[in-house]
Amino acid sequence: xxxxxxxxxxxxxxxxxxxxxxxxxxxxxxxxxxxxxxxxxxxxxxxxxxxxxxxxxxxxxxxxxxxxxxxxxxxxxxxxxxxxxxxxxxxxxxxxxxxxxxxxxxxxxxxxxxxxxxxxxxxxxxxxxxxxxxxxxxxxxxxxxxxxxxxxxxxxxxxxxxxxxxxxxxxxxxxxxxxxxxxxxxxxxxxxxxxxxxxxxxxxxxxxxxxxxxxxxxxxxxxxxxxxxxxxxxxxxxxxxxxxxxxxxxxxxxxxxxxxxxxxxxxxxxxxxxxxxxxxxxxxxxxxxxxxxxxxxxxxxxxxxxxxxxxxxxxxxxxxxxxxxxxxxxxxxxxxxxxxxxxxxxxxxxxxx
Length: 353
What we know:
This protein is α+β, with helices and mostly antiparallel strands. It is built from eleven helices and twelve strands. It is elongated, with a radius of gyration of 30 Å.
């Protein structure tokens, strides 16, 4: 320390020590606090001052726990000894670990911003928790290039609240140099997307904007980490959801997410398929509890769902070995064509009819 802190800082320094070094498994005695105050803050105080300030913190509303024991003093009188001080935290270590893991598994937050957020979460716990999560400092750098991600989210949040349109450019591709390429018009100019924003939602480790275009009624989804040069159009109110054919019955986010598992956008269609019983858990994980299941034999179940057809195509290709799509016929034919094309790529090398 460059200067000795004034006595009026004592209560804040005691609070800081509790936050840094205490929890239910690491309790501090008045002696412990005295020693840390002298070592870290160059403050010398007696134990009575420690107790007095701790009680003041409790009066101020801080959830500080302690234990009481009765001891007989030199005069033969009983006195209460206060010890085992620790502060109750707003988040448990398990809750902070869950939040940090959510950041680490996220695919849409740039590396530096992710590390900054993790650092802020670490501060909510103590030094013992920080020691257990040091491996996050060596996490691999993420691919996300959009350094203005949080600004984009702020603008979208404001636009949704004010019911105003936004416009932006959108990264539609990447080159061999791994640099983003914005979508362009036929004349080479960057395409300007002007949309009615309705909702932001997380799916498959990505963050999406659910919206409609100014001149079209189809619902579209855009990855927020690919949105650039966003601008709030304060003079342009959005088209109300009730006036959009696809949303005329209202916007039900859980239902929409269940129907758009890969966030392709568009209306859902009725799909029927057979699945092996051992992947029922996967079906429920992907499509939610509203799916209708029926007995289809000893080792199979019939599944009836409503889902985006393009999304169902990709899901069926992923689980093709374990399911068979029965309807609609257009989807069944599309899957068959794709399966034959894939088979043809390997047939000559590995044989087969």
